[in-house]
Design goal:
The protein is mainly alpha-helical. It is about 45% helix and about 5% strand. The longest helix has 21 residues.
Length: about 375
């Protein structure tokens, strides 16, 4: 048997009675608790109303069908969550977003559809702030990943708002997730020496590693690197897969360019046969070729990430005093991104900090 009760929200209710709300102007929301039948478990469900009469009607509906069907507002074009998913993904694919970005949206939608099914939510306009807060509470992620996912959720509901399927974007009212940024971890000189030794058994894998280390390219860009991208001047010229940014970088060590030229290309690519998908090819190089080399070099599995070659490239430039703007251009990123993740190695920044605290006239007091 289900019973009705008001769920007191002290932060929004002027009533001091935590058991029974006495605020007549804006009473607390009504919930239902109990069991529907012997086969169902104990439930506690928000009824989406503050009116006692409407709550009783929805309680009867819940006991009969197990789901509360919310009536459509007058003169409002409603869309199901599945419709939103289909149109949103189509729109993002038209915008030529990267595979990884679209994949993250698909994962988020899959979780949202399952959450809505459990909660008995069908239409987009039923996703109010309380429902989104409950949905966010199901994310078992690191704070940085959770922050990105919340941004994706806001973009999805902004799309719904643009189509006038919702009167406002409730995701914008979700509290900001505090993220503690960590500096990127490059390989040390000793680690690079051990990696170089371990890679000698795989000449093609060694060429792949050298290219990542001395170009700063992402693994997806190296995995589909064209032969024509390597110029006679030992410059690599390409458009990055993730951001579409044009990049031209000099391979400062001639051994790197020579290692690439020693590869017998297949279908005009150094590391790809042209038949599999670019994504699966990058995954193959990461999991089957590079990580085994890193582990053979004694790199802990938790830190055996090929992306660290890109960090090593960036950090070595910054430690030599290369301006942040130049490093950002070589990486195909913005200056803001470089400062956020590599600030500890920016020489000019550290010099300024040292000068700020260095005062020879400051007496030593014990």
């Amino acid at each position: 048997m289900l019973t009705l009760y008001r769920r007191h929200t002290a932060a929004k209710c002027s009533s001091t009675d935590s058991q029974n709300c006495t605020d007549k102007r804006r009473p607390c929301p009504i919930w239902a608790k109990g069991t529907i039948d012997l086969d169902s478990g104990y439930i506690r469900r928000r009824l989406g109303t503050r009116d006692w009469t409407k709550a009783q009607e929805r309680l009867r509906e819940l006991e009969t069908t197990g789901v509360i069907a919310k009536p459509a507002p007058a003169n409002v074009n409603r869309a199901t969550i599945e419709t939103l998913q289909e149109l949103f993904i189509q729109n993002k694919q038209t915008e030529n977003l990267s595979y990884s970005t679209i994949k993250q949206y698909k994962i988020l939608f899959r979780q949202l559809v399952e959450f809505a099914r459990v909660k008995g939510i069908r239409y987009v306009d039923e996703l109010d702030l309380v429902a989104l807060q409950e949905f966010r509470n199901t994310w078992k992620l690191q704070s940085s990943t959770k922050s990105i996912r919340q941004g994706n959720l806001q973009s999805i509901l902004k799309f719904a708002l643009t189509h006038k399927w919702i009167p406002e974007n409730p995701a914008m009212s979700l509290g900001k997730i505090k993220v503690y940024r960590t500096q990127k971890l490059p390989f040390t000189d000793d680690e690079m020496q051990r990696i170089s030794t371990a890679a000698k058994v795989d000449p093609k894998g060694c060429a792949f590693i050298l290219t990542m280390r001395y170009s700063g390219l992402r693994i997806s860009d190296v995995a589909q690197l064209r032969v024509t991208s390597l110029e006679s001047t030992n410059h690599l010229v390409l458009r990055t897969a993730k951001t579409g940014t044009p990049v031209k970088v000099l391979l400062q060590r001639p051994e790197v360019a020579n290692a690439l030229r020693a590869i017998k290309p297949v279908h005009d690519y150094f590391f790809w046969n042209g038949r599999s998908s670019t994504r699966s090819n990058a995954d193959y190089w990461r999991a089957q070729r590079l990580i085994p080399i890193l582990e053979a070099a004694g790199i802990e599995r938790a830190h055996a990430h090929p992306h660290r070659f890109r960090h090593t490239f960036a950090v070595n430039l910054l430690k030599r005093g290369t301006p942040v703007g130049v490093v950002a251009t070589l990486l195909g990123n913005s200056e803001g991104v470089v400062r956020k993740y590599y600030s500890a190695w920016v020489v000019s920044r550290q010099q300024g900090l040292d000068e700020a605290v260095a005062d020879p006239n400051d007496p030593l007091v014990l």
